[in-house]
Amino acid sequence: MQSRRRLLACLRFLAAAPGGERHLSSTAAGSARAADGRLFNKLLVANRGEIAVRVMRTAKRLGIPTVAIYSEADAAAVHARYANEAVCVGPAASTASYLNIPAILAAMKQTGADAVHPGYGFLSENASFVEAVEGAGATFVGPPTYAVEKMGDKVESKKFAAAAQVNTIPGWAGVTENADHALTVAKDIGFPVMIKASAGGGGKGMRVAWSEKELREGYELCTQEAASAFGDSRMLIEKFIEQPRHIEIQVLGDKHGNVVYFPERECSIQRRNQKVIEEAPSPLVTPEMRRAMGEQAVALCKAVGYHSAGTVEFLANPQRQFYFLEMNTRLQVEHPITEMITGQDLVEHMLRVAAGQPLTVTQDQLLHCSGWAMECRVYAEDPARGFLPSIGRLQHYREPRGPSVRCDSGVQEGSEISMHYDPLISKLVTHGVDRQSALAGMRRALDSYVIRGVRHNATLLRSVLDVPQFVEGDLSTAFLAQHYPTPASSAPNRLPLSSQQADELLAMAAMLWVGKQRRLSSGGDVAQVQAETQLVLTMDEQQVPVTVRPAEARMVGAAATTTTSAAAATPPGGGGQALEVQLPHRIMYVRDCGTGNAQLVRAEVDGQAAVLQVLEAGPRQYALQHCGAQRVVQVDGVLAAQLARHMPVPHVEDFSKVIRSPMPGTLVSVTVKQGQRVAPGDEVAVVEAMKMRNVLRAEVDGVVGAVEAEAGAVVAADQVIVRFS
Ligand SMILES: *[C@@H]1O[C@H](CO)[C@@H](O)[C@H](O)[C@H]1NC(C)=O
Ligand SMILES: *[C@@H]1O[C@H](CO)[C@@H](O)[C@H](O)[C@H]1NC(C)=O
């Protein structure tokens, strides 16, 4: 019965993707607030993008009408159209719209909304917003003001944690006064140390320092970042735990003093302290460790009188010691993986708790979770340019589907990724009976995820899934920095292909070319492409001689040149001709199974399903993506390949001669002057975009020839800031 309910809850999520949602009625009966037994009359969601859509999906299922707020830039956004009503709350800048408390209160009044869900980010952890909502007579779907205030302050929350007997990291239990004081503290606890903004979150205002020099530099940058992002530049210093793993406990409390914990999530794959891949449960955690972490998390919640959903974050070392990091008093980005393994809808629980109902799950129920779930955060950003946002229109966009795939997004084909907001495209979640099957599902899902028009990190995410340490569950928050140390190493065209994957890619490229020849000659001489074709494929500057022949030639005999035998090799269910591709050291059998769209090719390679992405198709050249790696494959007849060797090599710009702005933003400072000598790694300029400060550094020794932009200027992507002579 229990597992059946869990399964049903899971299925409801899967059925309720935006665009294809069904209105399923809720099973549990609740204490009525609204006249007809609904929990609330109307729910306003004070957020945008995927989380707004996700919250509304549950509200709709529970029969609660929804109100969206949107900025002028988001008038056509999916979340605004998904709601029953939508109200514009101001111009594009989030300070003028999604953070504009008076405008949001006015939208509540205008629509008669009696409850507000804040999502995550924006006003979700803002105590004044909670007070304003409640002051206006509505219900805030989240924790009480007191808990938001106490846990929102890193110093206060650490004191609370220590008092509630939660393990804490050695460090300075207060705010540092200035860089000198920070240095004294750092020397006291010993390097490496972590510098963190007291009001921080999302990796902003946070840096590790391994030396005095790094401490001073990092302190300066963090203070500035924190001041601009949070209007609060207070800093903390604590011991930095090496090879740390980020493990967190989802908690849920009601207004009657009951608190339960869920099985942990591990979020160790991070870039600059931003989570990238999460999974539940964690490969590290034992049942004893889970219970210890869970009980500490519950103790902390009880100490601050917590209700609603929240997350207690810990750092753990490989010896399974764990330390309190912080508590997030909101629904987390990565909450879906917890929902997938427990079958619980956290947003539904938040709404019920907010309406005053007691918890409808027991601790015992939550510890019997099923299977494994994994989440990848797909961002519109450019890993090859230091992970800066990539803005533009989604020209082609197709989300993966499947029985165990959940894709939470707030975009669709044609949507604009704007520079005003977080560049998250979607959260891709897969579920499986165990870690290996969730992982295999994630590989398939990422392989068939079509995103064109913006640069994104899905290729890198896919590449991570093949790294042996990741496969073994040997994770740490330093994983990405260790495996992809430079921007170049994470560029899609430099991501590695195993020799098996490279062979598959070549065989499928040959298949595409042969398929095209057949279409070109269709109605004409089919026999021509039925015969043996000799090709030379060029990839990664290697020329590979390849022979392609119809697979039935080998199976039915050399004379298989009639359309009848070609049809015989095409299994029912459609798809192309089966081909035998002879590579220098092996033979592969491939068949194009077709998808009906030009961006994606489904194929069968040696009997296994494979997905190939076609980024560009020229007359003799393909830009292809396989297992996250992008490669250009040139297809030539034997003679053409010999000639190509004598072609001139195209000129490539020498990037060591200029410093360009990697993205649109504001030039905060230029550190160098004309005539100044710089060494590799020296700071040249600082560009701020999306509230992140990015230090641009010299790559080689040089002398500044000209400074072409001034501090304060708005700079475009690729605009030259400094030229070396
Ligand atoms: C809450 O949000 C308002 C509006 O953005 C902002 O002025 C205020 O500083 C925020 N307060 C906290 C505690 O974050
Ligand atoms: C994906 O984007 C996020 C957000 O910018 C970033 O932190 C992360 O590192 C990117 N992905 C990978 C695999 O690095």
UniProtKB/TrEMBL annotation:
<keyword id="KW-0443">Lipid metabolism</keyword>
<dbReference type="GO" id="GO:0016042">
    <property type="term" value="P:lipid catabolic process"/>
</dbReference>
<dbReference type="GO" id="GO:0004658">
    <property type="term" value="F:propionyl-CoA carboxylase activity"/>
</dbReference>
<dbReference type="InterPro" id="IPR011761">
    <property type="entry name" value="ATP-grasp"/>
</dbReference>
<dbReference type="InterPro" id="IPR011764">
    <property type="entry name" value="Biotin_carboxylation_dom"/>
</dbReference>
<feature type="domain" description="Lipoyl-binding">
    <location>
        <begin position="650"/>
        <end position="725"/>
    </location>
</feature>
<keyword id="KW-0464">Manganese</keyword>
<comment type="pathway">
    <text>Metabolic intermediate metabolism; propanoyl-CoA degradation; succinyl-CoA from propanoyl-CoA: step 1/3.</text>
</comment>
<dbReference type="InterPro" id="IPR000089">
    <property type="entry name" value="Biotin_lipoyl"/>
</dbReference>
<keyword id="KW-0460">Magnesium</keyword>
<keyword id="KW-0547">Nucleotide-binding</keyword>
<feature type="domain" description="ATP-grasp">
    <location>
        <begin position="158"/>
        <end position="355"/>
    </location>
</feature>
<dbReference type="Pfam" id="PF02786">
    <property type="entry name" value="CPSase_L_D2"/>
</dbReference>
<dbReference type="InterPro" id="IPR005481">
    <property type="entry name" value="BC-like_N"/>
</dbReference>
<dbReference type="GO" id="GO:0046872">
    <property type="term" value="F:metal ion binding"/>
</dbReference>
<dbReference type="GO" id="GO:0005524">
    <property type="term" value="F:ATP binding"/>
</dbReference>
<dbReference type="Pfam" id="PF18140">
    <property type="entry name" value="PCC_BT"/>
</dbReference>
<dbReference type="Pfam" id="PF00289">
    <property type="entry name" value="Biotin_carb_N"/>
</dbReference>
<feature type="domain" description="Biotin carboxylation">
    <location>
        <begin position="39"/>
        <end position="485"/>
    </location>
</feature>
<protein>
    <recommendedName>
        <fullName>propionyl-CoA carboxylase</fullName>
        <ecNumber>6.4.1.3</ecNumber>
    </recommendedName>
</protein>
<dbReference type="InterPro" id="IPR041265">
    <property type="entry name" value="PCC_BT"/>
</dbReference>
<dbReference type="InterPro" id="IPR011054">
    <property type="entry name" value="Rudment_hybrid_motif"/>
</dbReference>
<keyword id="KW-0442">Lipid degradation</keyword>
<dbReference type="InterPro" id="IPR005479">
    <property type="entry name" value="CPAse_ATP-bd"/>
</dbReference>
<dbReference type="InterPro" id="IPR005482">
    <property type="entry name" value="Biotin_COase_C"/>
</dbReference>
<dbReference type="InterPro" id="IPR016185">
    <property type="entry name" value="PreATP-grasp_dom_sf"/>
</dbReference>
<keyword id="KW-0092">Biotin</keyword>
<keyword id="KW-0067">ATP-binding</keyword>
<dbReference type="Pfam" id="PF02785">
    <property type="entry name" value="Biotin_carb_C"/>
</dbReference>
<dbReference type="InterPro" id="IPR011053">
    <property type="entry name" value="Single_hybrid_motif"/>
</dbReference>
<dbReference type="InterPro" id="IPR050856">
    <property type="entry name" value="Biotin_carboxylase_complex"/>
</dbReference>
<dbReference type="InterPro" id="IPR001882">
    <property type="entry name" value="Biotin_BS"/>
</dbReference>
<keyword id="KW-0479">Metal-binding</keyword>
<keyword id="KW-0436">Ligase</keyword>
<dbReference type="GO" id="GO:0005739">
    <property type="term" value="C:mitochondrion"/>
</dbReference>
<dbReference type="Pfam" id="PF00364">
    <property type="entry name" value="Biotin_lipoyl"/>
</dbReference>
